[in-house]
Description:
Layout: H1 10-21, H2 38-47
Amino acid sequence: MGTGGLKGVYYPVGKAIAKLFNGKIQGTKIEVLSTQGSVQNIGDLISGKVGLGICSGRCCR
């Protein structure tokens, strides 16, 4: 999952989401990746680099 910088908000949110899902759904393993944020996460989703990414609605307008 693409998140954001290590000192930002998205990274700890991604860690919390991963903790909720990992081990709860058979075969699910979410790895949290530090990224530059929303725009990179959308690009990484489009390219297939990640399967999940956190983004702000503001980045897409």
